[in-house]
Amino acid sequence: MYKFCISCVLLSLKVQSYLTINYLLRDIVKIDKFKKTFNIPALCLFIALFCFLPLSTVADEVEDSLRLADLEVIDYDFFANSDTLSIRRLPTSFWFGALFGTNWSVFYGDIELPLIDNDPDLLGRTIDFRTGVGDGIFFGATAEWLPPLSDWGGILRLFFYDRKSGLTDTDPENDDQETHYTLESEYLYLTLQPTVRYDIKNLGGFHLYGGLDLELLLTSDVRRIKHFKNTAAITWETLQTVKPTSFRFGANFGVGYDIYSLDAQHSMRVFLTPFVSVHTGTNVFSHEIFGRTSDRNTIYLRTGFALRFTNDIAKYDTLKFNPSYVVPPEKQSVLAFETEVVFPNPPPFEKIPTEEIVRVERPVLDTIEPSVKFEEPPEEPPEELVVIPNKKKVLFFDKTLGTRDKEYLDVLVEYLSSNPKLNVRIVGHSDNTGTLAQNKDRSDVRAEQVFRYLDEKGISRGRLFKRGVGSIYPNETNLTDQGRRKNRRVEVIVIGR
Q: How far apart are alpha carbons 465 and 107 in whole angstroms?
């Protein structure tokens, strides 16, 4: 209680010193911005006064003496003349060692990579890689400044081998080949980590730390793998030219526990410190693709061990042998007692009276006819038959053209007759109800239906480009009848020469 009272008194003195410094600076510095109540120079001096003039009480001195007693190691050595050499050792403020462990990463954000394909319909298409996970290992060295009588200290860690890898999969595409992509990435960093450490009182070895991460990229390897099935599982690996950012700036926060492990040659103490920390920072990837910005970042967890050592400061004292010393007799005290506990007989249990539960039938409610009648919405008018260049028109049919399809093709014939410099691309599609070869034949037949109709109407064959692509580009899902009907189609596109 007295320590709390003294602390409050000293805190009030520090607040009064802030007000005094603020008043003096407002009189000395004749600038308007320093005449405000919130005086920046006075606040800086107050923070320095508050931080660097710690409270010093009798309780603190007692606590320091207890901490020294915990840190002190006493060794004894004996001489031939029966004298005893007492060696009292305390650790220095500087520790050195090595550390190792694993990285556990979670990648988030969208990174878009171009899809390289010779098909003109796929030009400009990208692959969007989203959240992924990864791992890695690290090795490094550590240097620490830990004053024996202070709760605060500093740590400087250098990770000369800091490897992080990532794995991201896309969802399977809606095709028969179950096409999906995997992005494998591996980065090797040189990382400098300055941190501040705080020892938790009364928890013996537990400490918190936090600081900065300065990561310099040494090497990187980013690969895109395409997975698809074509009578067998096939993978196609492509080395990506996109590079991650060369420097990352981040922050970290962690917890560790010091375990006293070894006393080496009565002059050095060794500690094993398991630790875990959370890290985040600036983007791993940031690049432009087709006028859009693609970013990716990571948050990762470090788990590892640090093996630290320090040389002790030794104080020597010789205890002379006293031949007249007599060892006092040993006395032993015995305390014996007997206790008898008697439990009285418990009272008998009384039966709780109950009442009979009568079942009540639920009444039947009369049905009420609704007084409001809903009218069905009118049918939508048919789509206007208009030809628009470079816009896809889809014709849905199974084996033969429908009446509505022929009406559109008649409009297309008139449009092409009026515009002799325009051509037509005809692409037939199918569902997945057969083999790849069967679906390809069916799509060819559908494209041929449109091709023959336009040819018979007088459109030159040199202006008609037809092909069938089978079931590899579905418009809807092939799991339902309606979706399969939507996939049995022909796409007609008017293009320039």
A: 45
Tens of pLDDT, residues 237-250: 766 667 788 999 99
Q: Which long-range contacts (CB under 8 A, 24 or more apart) does 226-233 make?
A: 226/179, 226/181, 227/178, 227/179, 227/180, 227/181, 227/182, 228/177, 228/178, 228/179, 228/180, 229/177, 229/178, 230/177, 230/436
CATH 3.30.1330.60 for domain 393-496: yes
C-alpha 288/C-alpha 214 separation (Å) is 24
> Which residue, among 137, 181, 180, 176, has the nearest Cα to 160 in the 3D structure?
137
Same fold, 89-319 and 393-496: no
Task: Please give the full DSSP string across 389-425, using - where no structure is assigned.
Answer: TT--EEEE-SSS--HHHHHHHHHHHHHHHH-TTEEEE
Cα–Cα distance measured from residue 468 to residue 182, given in angstroms and rounded to the nearest whole number: 29
Report which secondary-structure segment, H or E, holds 198. Answer: strand 180-199
User: 3-state class of 261 per DSSP?
Assistant: strand
Architecture of domain 89-319: Beta Barrel (2.40)
Spatial separation of the C-alpha atoms in residues 116 and 124, rounded to whole Å: 9
Where do we find the tokens 């439990």? 343
Q: Which two tokens stand for residue 8?
A: 């409050």
**29-38, 82-91, 281-290, 348-357: which range is least confident on average?**
29-38
Q: Which residue type occupies 18?
A: Y
Six token digits for residue 291:
């006028």
The Cα 23–Cα 108 span in angstroms is: 51
Amino acid 91 reads P
CA gap 248, 299 in Å, rounded: 12
Residue pLDDT, tens place only, 195-221: 999 998 777 789 999 999 999 999 988
Dig out the tokens for 241 from the structure: 């030219």
- The whole-angstrom distance between residue 399's C-alpha and the CA centroid of its chain comes to 52
Q: Could you state, in order of their start, the residue ranges of all structural domains in the chain? A: 2-56, 89-319, 393-496
Shortest CA distance to 131 belongs to which of 92, 166, 172, 87?
166
Query: Which one, of 211, 201, 207, 195, lies nearest residue 258 by Cα?
Result: 207
Residue 85 has what pLDDT? 81
Query: CA-to-CA distance for 142 and 211, rounded, in angstroms?
Result: 14
Single-letter residue type at 433: T
Exposed, middle or buried, 192 (CB in 10 Å: 0-12/13-18/19+)?
middle
Query: Rounded CA gap, 364 and 20, in Å?
Result: 85
Q: Is 87 helix (H, G, I), strand (E, B) or coil?
A: strand
Cα dist. 424→162, 264, 371, 403, 449 in Å? 57, 86, 56, 20, 14
Of the CA atoms within 13 Å of residue 453, those in its CB half-sphere come to: 22
